[in-house]
Amino acid sequence: MKTHSILFAALIGATLAASVPVAANEQAGEPVVAQTFMGKTYLNGGIGKDEVDFMHRTAHEFPLRLIFSERKDGEFTADVSVVISDARGNSVFELSNAGPMLYVMLPNGKYKISARFKGMTESQEVTLSGKEGKDLYFHWKGTPKQ
Questions:
Q1: Element (H, E) at 5
Q2: Which of 1, 28, 56, 85 is most buried, judging by how many CB atoms fall within 10 Å of its CB?
Q3: DSSP 36-74
Q4: Alpha-carbon distance 26 to 51, whole Å?
């Protein structure tokens, strides 16, 4: 586990330095990619068992973890538009196709997260401090698929 954290930290550093997508763990064939946008490193994925497993294994590396679901059956969803704003209301991160899991590296502080799916926006506020990350769940209600 410690080796994995060191490898992951090195990949995050490479991503920040190069500002281009880097495979999170090509050797294991895991499809999730660490990327940088607006100066923030993030992981976006969670479709399929391999991606879900990888996201769960790396969750502790990210201070903010967002999970998106819909309907009464709580099925995970993707293609969520996300905007994260700082305490002053300035946008610090945006992604138009997030989910079902989005993990973002952010410095300590207060943030407002707005997530839009199928024309409906959900918003939550969070304070990041210390080494413990925060999990936020966004759920859009509706009827289960037939």
A1: helix 2-18
A2: 85
A3: EETTEEEEEE--SHHHHHHHHHHGGG-SEEEEEEETTTT
A4: 12
User: Residue 141 has what pLDDT?
Assistant: 87
Mean pLDDT of the chain: 80
CATH assignment at residue 56: 2.60.40.10
Between 92 and 143, the more confident residue is 92
Domain total of the chain: 1
Cβ-contact 45, 103 below 8 angstroms: no
Element spanning 128, H or E: strand 120-128
Q: Does 85 fall in a domain? A: yes
What are the pLDDT digits (tens) for 42-52?
Answer: 999 998 899 99
Distance of CA 85 to the CA centre of its chain: 15
Measured CA to CA, the distance from residue 54 to residue 95 in angstroms comes to: 20
Residue 146, domain member (yes or no): no
pLDDT in tens, 89-125: 999 999 999 999 999 999 999 999 999 999 999 999 9
Domain that holds residue 67: 2-140
Compute the distance between CA of residue 51 and CA of residue 53 in angstroms, rounded to an integer: 5
